[in-house]
Amino acid sequence: MTPAALELDRITKRFGPLVANDAVSLSLAQGEVLALLGENGAGKTTLMNILFGHYRADEGEVRVMGRPLPPGQPRAAIAAGVGMVHQHFTLAGNLTVLDNVLIGSEPLLRLRSRRAEARTRLLDLAARFGLPVDPDARVADLSVGERQRVEILKALYRDARILILDEPTAVLARPEAERLFGTLRGMTGQGLSIVFISHKLHEVMAASDRVAVLRAGRLVAERRTTDTTPAELAELMVGRRVARPRRAARAPGPPVLTADRVTVVEKGETRLDAISFEVREGEILGIVGVSGNGQATLGRLLSGLARPSTGALALGGRDMARLSPRALVREGVGRIPEDRHAEGAIGELAVWENAILERARDPAFARAGLVRRAAARAFAADLIARFDIRGAGPDTRTRLLSGGNMQKLILGRTLAMNPRFVLANQPTRGLDEGAIAAVHARLLEARERGAAILLISEELEEALGLADRLQAIVKGRLSDPIPAEEADTRRLGLLMAGVWEVPHAA
Amino acid sequence: MSDALDLLWTASLWAAVLRIATPLIFGTLGALLCERAGVLNLGIEGIMTMGAMVGWLTVHLGGDLWTGLLAAALAGAALGLLHAALTVPLGLSQHVSGLGITLFGSALAYYLYRLLVEVGDLPPTIEPFQAIRVPVLSDLPFLGPVLFSQAAPTYLALLCAGVLAFVLARTPLGLALRMTGENPHAVEAQGLNPVRLRVGAVVAGSALMGLGGAFLTTAAFNSFFPTMVQGRGWICIALVVFASWRPGRALLGALLFALFDAWQLRLQQAVPGVPYQLFLMAPYLLSILALVLVARRARVPEALMVPYRRGER
Amino acid sequence: QGTPPLRVAAVHASPVENAWNSRVHLAFQQAAERGLIAYEFSEGVAATDYPRAMREYAESGARLVWGESFAVENEAREVAADYPDTAFLMGSSGGPSGDNFGVFGTRNHEAAFLAGMLAGAMSQSGRFGSVGGYPIPEVNLLINAFRFGVQETRPDATFSNIFIGAWFDPAKAKEAAIAQIDGGADILFGERIGTADGAAERGAKAIGSLIDYTPRYPGTVFANALWNYGPTIEAIVADVQAGNPTGRDYTEYSFMRHGGSELVFVPEEVPPEAVAAMQAREAEIRSGAFEVPIDADEPA
Amino acid sequence: MRLERRTHVPLAAAALAPLAAVGLALLLAAGLIAAAGVSPLAAYAELLRGALGSRLALTETLARATPLILTGLAAAVAFRARVWNIGAEGQFYGGALLTAWAGHALLAGGPPVLGVPALLLLGMAAGALLLLGPVALRLSLGVDEVVTTLLLNFAVLLFVGLMIEGPLRDPLAFGWPQSVPVASDLRLPDLVPRSRLHVGLLVALAAAALVWAVNARTVWGAETRAAGLNPRAAAFAGVSLPRTLLGVAALSGGLAGLGGATEVLGVTGSVTTNLSPGFGTAGIVVAMLAGLHPAGVVASAVFLATVFVGADAMSRATEVPSFIADVIMSASLLAMVVALLLVTHRVAR
Ligand SMILES: Nc1ncnc2c1ncn2[C@@H]1O[C@H](COP(=O)(O)OP(=O)(O)OP(=O)(O)O)[C@@H](O)[C@H]1O
Ligand SMILES: Nc1ncnc2c1ncn2[C@@H]1O[C@H](COP(=O)(O)OP(=O)(O)OP(=O)(O)O)[C@@H](O)[C@H]1O
Ligand SMILES: [Mg+2]
Ligand SMILES: [Mg+2]
Questions:
Q1: Are residues A258 and A210 in the same domain?
Q2: Which of A225, A242, A432, D169 is deepest in the core (most CB within 10 A)?
C-alpha cells in the first residue's frame, strides 16, 4: 500500500486556556478529497494552519508522504508539496496576479526575476486546470472568484500535491462553486489530494470522498461520503439535530420599499442599470446572482452609502434616495452588511458599543451628547440573551466573538428596533449550519411581524428557503421577479447566467 | 521677473541642484525602502545625524573617505537595527520608536563627538570628496558642470536610485520586500519570513540614510556641527509620499526639492527686498502643492505601519 | 596670585562650535588657563530651559553667570533680579539692568568695515556678497558695516545677501556663497561658516568674521574681522573682584581701541595702496576721529 | 518566538517594568558618563536632585511638563482617530503667535477675566486651523496628512519668523526679533510665586480631564474612536467621517495651539522662533508612551520632563557634556515602550 499522502498524528493546540485542537488524528489518501466539517470555532482552520506550518502544534506530528514535517515552517510544508488556500485570502491587492504567484517561488537572491518564464508557466497551469486569469491584472481589480483562482494557482505553481482549501466557497455563488469543484475533481485525476473545509453540506456531499467532523477541537466522526446524509452530518457537527426553519405562507401587505428604474453610477461606471423592484410588508424578496454583478452597490444604495444617479427610491411612499445611514435607521430601515468584519462591527470595540453604533445619537442611548452607558449595556445584555449570542458579555471585545455570534449581534441590533424594512446582504456567509438556522429563524420572525425584507444572497438554498419572490442580478440589471413557487435551482441558475427570456420550465 | 526664470537655465543652478539633492536622495531612498517593506522610519533625522558624525569622525581619525562612508552606513544600519527590533518583532509603535531613535541618534552623536573630538576655535576639518573632473566631459557646456563635475557620492546616490528601482521592480527579493509592505501574511504563506524581510529592509534603508548624513560632512562640507542635518530627514519622509513610494520618482522628487532650494538661494539675490523667509518657505509650500497634485495617484503600501505579528488575529 | 580664580559659568544657547560662542568659549578657556577664572559651561540650551540653567548656576554658587539673553531678555533679567549677589553678563541687544545685569554687544563691525575697504579695492566685478544666518541686529550690523567699508573704496559697488535661516547649516551656507559668486560676486563676507568653502571652490575671495579663517582657507580668506572676548572678560572680572556693580554695558570692550576687535589680513594678497588707506582709517577709528556707523537694519 | 497578550497583568510587573526601563537607560548612560571621566553614581545623585530635589527643580519640572501635556493630548486625540498629526509643533507656534498678537493688539486693555479665556480660545483656533487644512485635504483629495503636517511645521516656523521680524516685531524689544508682548494683565498668573510654574498647568490638567470625558463619555468621542479603528464600519453605522475627522482635527490642533498659547501667556509673554524645543514632536512620544490615554499623557509628560530636567541639571553639576540629557531621555523612552509591552504581553515560544 502506498503511504498516505498526509497524516496528522494526535495534534493538540492550545491558545491559553482554550484547546483549539485536541489530539486530532487524520489521514488523507492520494487522490482523495476529504471534507472537514465543524461549527464555527471548532478548530478547522487551526488544524490546517498547523499542517501548513503557520502554527506549531503543542503536541503531535504531521507527516507528508510518510515523512515528518518540521513544525512551524510554511516553507517546509510548501517544499513537501502542501499548498493552502486560506480562509482569508493572502493576496496583495496592489500587486499583479503574476507578482502574487511568483513571490517566494524563486531564490530570493537571484539577480533578476524570470518573469517571462513564470508568465508562460502560469498561463500553462491556468489552461491545464481550467483556471483562467490575466497575469498582469491588479489583484484589487479582480472579483472574489478570480482571486480564489489566483490563490489556487499560487499553490499549483509551487507544485502542490496536497491542496488545502479553507472554506473556498464561502464567497462563491453556486455556479462558481460548482465549477471550482469540477476543477478540483480534475486535479485529483492528476494525482492531487485535497482537503477542503465547508459549511455547505450539499457541497460536502457532492464533492468529497470522505468527511471528517470536528466539534470543539475534537475529531468526533469520520464517514465515507456515500455512507452518510446531510442530516447526520449536521447532527454530528452540532451535537444535536438541526434543521433550517421553513417559511410559512403569509399574504404580503402593501409595498414598503420601491425602486423605480434606479441607476447608480460610481467612478464613471454604471453599477446599477435602471433596476426596479418592490418589497412588500411581510415579504422577503430574494436577489440572487453571481458575486460582482452589482450586489455590493445595491447594498450600499439601500444602506445610505450610495445615491441613485437617476430613478426613484421610496420608503413607505416617501423619497429615501438622499437619506444618510443614520436617517435611514431612524426611518426604520435595518441593515445587515455583507461583510461583518469590514462593515458590520468594529472588532476592537466592546459588544455594547457595537450594539448601539448605528443608533449612538438615539435618545435611548444618548443624552445631551453623552453616552447613556447603563442603558446601552442593558440593551446589549438583552440582545445577548434574546439572540443567543454565546461567549460574550456586554463588555467583551467584539473581536473575540466567533463569526456566527458576531452575525447574531448584528442581526440582533438590527431587528431589535423592529424595522419596517430590512436589507439582509449575505446574512449567513461563512456561518455553520446551527448559526444559519438561527439567522433564518430570526429573519422569518421579522417577516412574520410584517417587516419587508430584501435578501441578497449567492446561496440558492438560502434564497429558495427564505424568499417569497426572487429576482436575479446580472451585470447591474435586475430580472423580472418570479414567485418562489415557480423557482428551482435550475431556473435560478439560468436567470443568474442572464438567460431571462426562457419560458417557464413547467 | 524674467530674471527669475533665466536663472533656471544656468548650469550653476543645476549643478547646485545635484549637490543639494544628494543627501536627500540617499535619505529618501532609505526611507522608501523601509516603507516599501511596511515600516515607517521617523528615526531618519537621528540616523542622518549619526551618519554625518561617524562618517566624518572615521576620516578625522585617519580612515579614508570611502571608509568613512562605510562607517556611516554601518552606524545607520545599527540604529536601523534598533528601530527594526522594536517595531518588527515587538510590533511597537513605529512613530514612537522612530522619534525616539531620532532623539537618541542625534543626542548620542553630539555626545560622542564632544567626548572624542577636541574643538578649538573652529571644529577640525577633513579633506572632503572633491568634484570629479572627467577629461573631456567635464568641459562640455552646461552638461559638463552639471553632470560631470560632481563629487563621487553624488554618483553613488544616483546609482543607488537605479539599483533600488531595479531591485524592487525586477528581482525576487524586491518582490518579496514589496509584498511584505502590502501583505506580510501573504509573504509568510509563501514560505518567506516577513519579519526578516522587514528587519533587513529597515537596516539597509537606514544604512542609506547614514550615507545621506555622511555626505554633508564628507562632501558638502568638511566638519561636523551639531544640528547640521537641519530637518533634511523630515523632508525625505515627505518626499517618499510625494514619490508614491517609487524610487524613480523619489529621485525626481529630491531633485525637484533641491531645485526649489537652489533657485530660492539665487532668487534672494535676483529679487531683493522680499523677506527671506518667503523664499525659504517656498520649497515646503511647493512640496505640499505638488503633493496635492499627485495625491490621487499615490498608492500607499497597504501594510505600512501595520505591525505583523505571527499567528495573531 | 593672591585672589582665587573667579567661578564663572556660561550658558551657551548654541553648541560651542557656533563661531560667536566659540570666541567666548575660547576666551574663557584661556582666562581659566591663566588662573583668572574657573570656567564651567552648558551648551545647546533651549530658550525654554535657559532661565533654569541660569538659576541653577546662580544657586550653585557661580560668581559670574555669562550668557546670551537675546531670545530671553525679560526672563533673564528676572533671574538676575532674584540673585543680586551674582553677576550676570549677557550678550544682549538691550541695555543693562540693576546692579548685577551687565550686557555686551558684538562689535567687530569696525574690523568688518576695514575689511570692506580692502574688498572694495580688490574686487574685479564690483559685486559683493554676504551670507548670514538670520537677520538679527548682531548679524545685520556686521554686514552693513562691511558694506559701508566697501563703499568707501568702491562707491559703485552692488551687494547681495542671503540668509540661510539656520545657524548650523554649513552646506547650505556654501551653496549660498556659490549662488552669489555665480551671480557675479567675487568677494564674500562670511558671517556663517561655509561661505569661504563656496568661495574656495569657485576661486573667489572671502572675508571671515569673528574668527581667523585664513589658516583654514589659505588663498581664499584674505582678511578677518576678529572679535576678541578677552578684554571684556578682564573688565568684568576686575569689576567683580573689586566689588563694583556689574550692571553696566561692556560693549566698549569689543571695540578696536580696547583690543576687542581687530582686522587681520594677508598683506601679500591685498594691494598696498588699499592697505594704506585702510590703515589710515583704522588709526582714525582707534583715535575716535572716525566712528563706523552702526546700522542694525536687515540688509537688502 | 512570539508575543502573546497576557490574560491578566501581574501587578508587580506593571509596577516594576517602568522602573526597570529607566534603570536600563541609566545603565547605558552610565557607560557614557564614565567615559567622560565622571562617576555615574555622583552624576545620578545630581540628576535626582536636579529634577526633584528643590523647589526650583520641582516647579521647573512641572513647568516643562505643561506644554508637553497639551501637545501630548493633541497627539493622543488625533492618533486615536488615526489622524496622523505630526504637525503639533507648527500648531503650537500658530497658537502662540495668534495669542501674542491678540494679547497685544486686540484684547489689551479689556478685562482679564474675559481676555485670558479669549486668548486661550484664539490660540486653540489658530492651532485648529493649521490641522483642519491637512485633514480637509486628506478627506477631499487623499493627501497624506503625515507629510502635509510635517512640512507645515517648517513653513509655520518661517512664517513666525516673518511676522516677528516684520509686522509683529516688538519695537521696544532689545533688537532680537521677538513678537509684540502680551499685555501684562493678560498673562497667566504664577501657580507658585517666584517660579515659572503658572496656571497653564491647571489648564493642561483640565484639558486632560476634558479629553478623557469626551473620549470616554460622549457620543462624539465614541464615534471618533470608531472612525479611527474601522472607518468603513463607522461609515456604515452612519458616523460621518468628514465631520468626525474635522472635529478631531479641530480638537487636536486646538490642544497644540493651546500649548503655544499657555507657554506665551504663562512663561515668555511673547513669541520667538525658539519658543519650543520640539514640544510638538515630544508630544507624540508622550502620547504613545501613554497608550493615548489622557491620564497617561499627564503621567508620561511629567515623566519625560523629570528625566530631562534632571539630566540637564546633572550635566551642569558635573562636567558631562550637556547632550547627555537627551541621550538619557531618549534611551528611557525606548526602554519604556519595550517595558510597557512586556507588561501586557508575554513572550511565548
Ligand atoms: N491565534 C489565535 N489566538 C487565540 N485563539 C485562537 C486563535 N486562532 C483561533 N483561535 C480560537 O480557536 C478556536 C478555533 O478557531 P478556528 O479558526 O480554528 O475555527 P474554525 O473551525 O476554522 O471556525 P470557522 O468555521 O469560523 O472558520 C476558536 O475558538 C478561536 O477563537
Ligand atoms: N534595468 C533597470 N536598470 C535601472 N533602472 C531600471 C531598470 N528597470 C527599471 N528601472 C527603473 O525602475 C523604475 C521602476 O520602478 P518605479 O516604481 O520607481 O517606477 P515606475 O514603475 O516606472 O513608475 P511609473 O509608473 O511612473 O512609470 C523605472 O522608472 C525605471 O527607471
Ligand atoms: Mg476557519
Ligand atoms: Mg512601476
A1: no
A2: A432
